Amino acid sequence: MAAGLGLLLLLGGGAVVAQAVSNSGQEIRNKEYLRNLWRNEPVETLFPTALGLQDPEKKQGDPDTERGWTRVAVSPETSCAKALSGAVAKEAARRGCVAAVRATYVDDTGGTAASIAIVMFGDPKIALDFGDLVHDKGDADRPDQAVHALAAPGITWSDAVRAGSGSYSVLDIDTPCAVVASAGPSDGRKAGRLPEPWGERRGGQRMDREPWSAVAEGLAKSLAWRLTDLTFKGGA
User: What is the pTM of this model?
Assistant: First the structure.
């Protein structure tokens, strides 16, 4: 009887020790860090010097070696109103946008520019579907785009030449962040309107802008993936 009781106590003690060891190996996420990602990381990390579409086979923790776009400007402003444009800016304000940091990239051909904004909110759930608004507004005959163009030396890049926008959310349940981008010609040329009969419907005009929207969407997704990786490295 006493031996059996001693065995039970020993097994119980072993279970407690095992649970303690298991708990010691768990990582407690730093949610405060994640909510303030834009403050806690240097600009070179948030907006890498070179950016490109990630390899679909890339695994978490693999080095970022993608190329194709070069960073040419970073804004010191963090105002949501100054970074975002039109209906997207209004919706961001309605959802309680905390900050929006912005940078401009130029592709390797020198022909296309894009301004990208990392948009921070107070609640992660608010950010998850924020990008849907960007896509919905892309159906308009003359979309007001999403991100104000950030000027950079050597290119003629302004709001007037933005031709397409896209976005992607940072896929982390504790990080209230979405990435939004607007792209267009870097030499000041404006995307034209298709003449009739091709441009007599909104669908035709939208199809003519789709390449610019695809570029913006790809850049937003690439940066969002990088930021998602960052949340797992710095949020633990």
Answer: 0.79
For range 111-124, the mean pLDDT: 95
Residue 180: CB partners within 8 Å, gap ≥ 6? 84, 88, 116, 117, 119, 130, 131, 134, 146, 147, 165, 166, 167, 220
Among residues of the chain, what percentage have pLDDT more than 90? 46
pLDDT digit string (tens) for 102-113? Answer: 999 999 999 999
Residue tagged 């993936």 (tokens): 225
Residue 181: name the closest of 105, 120, 111 by CA.
105
CA distance 216 to 228: 18
Residue linked to tokens 């992660």: 124
Q: What is the chain's Cα-based Rg?
A: 23
